[in-house]
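thought: fold this chain, then report.
action: predict
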Amino acid sequence: MDTDLRKLSPEELQKLYMARFWEYLRITQWLIVCFAVLIMLLWFWDCTFDPVNAPQTFWFRIMAATTALVTAAALGGQLGIIGSVILLYTGILIIQAIYFLILSILEGGFVIGIGGYLYFFLASVLLGLSFSFRFNAIGSVCITFAPHLCGFLIEPAFPDMLYATLIWPAGIICIFFHWTAGNLIIDRLHYRSRMEDLALEDPLTGLQNRRGLQRDYRKVRSLAQRENEDLSLILLDIDHFKSINDRHGHVAGDRVLEKLAGIMKDNFRASDSLARIGGEEFVCLVPDTDLDAAVAKAESLRRFAEQARVTNMATNDKTVSFTISLGVASARATENFEDTLRRADEALYRAKSEGRNRVAHNP
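observation:
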């Protein structure tokens, strides 16, 4: 996988962080519920360690478990990444403060109960998978220093040096784990995202393939219907492409396909979807564009293609010219992708039958 995260754009990283957040959020909620159960089970440890004072800790255990359950429920809301990370670590710190109060009730609790603070680092490691290293590092630092802050405010005799010796190394290890795990998770998501993109991409031209175009059509069709916007489709075909291959070779034919793809990329918007769906067949899906505007776009593309020249790689001294025919259709309310494509194909057939190198449309 060997992803160099420094080469990813801010937009790509943000996309991966969001994918990471949603992928692990539901797991995080269930893990918090498990921690709530663990908090209550540890009351039996209180009873074993100090049966005299253990009854006083029961309600603190209830408070801590309730805090965990409320945090799990609230994470299901539309808080976003920053709101969720603040909620999660606030919940952990509240439970940590309650645990401090429990130890203050038990006889010798601060010495015997120091190992219990390791559970909070475990919580950070498991529950923080949804978030980036930066957020988890800040949360881990807060967990590390929370006992010292509680000791300063509540218990003057709190053994700071003992906790610093045992808890700080655990905090450093936790932060290192977050750094390693964060990179591995982003690396895995980037690899998976790239594989998904490749499955929807034409390897020669870098445009989408038919499958990718169908996915985009469903998205933009839904948006167009919701916003009451136009949606048009341009189907184009290279004229006499077989003759180009026969006369100049398949390498020259590939260069023509790449040249046409480059012209399409230069003349359409980032919001438009461009695809190669067959040997020499291409599609431009243009949202928020009515039929007249789509016809004008198609005519402009036809002129650019007519003026283009491709060097014949076999001879290096001859150029190959080519023309395209185009069919345009505007999507109707009751149509699916295949219906719109069929009507555009009908218009394309008419453009070819009328002499090629022209645009025809189907209302």
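thought: worth noting. The beta strands are 231-238, 273-276, 281-287, 310-311, 319-320, 324-330, 359-362.
final: tokens above.
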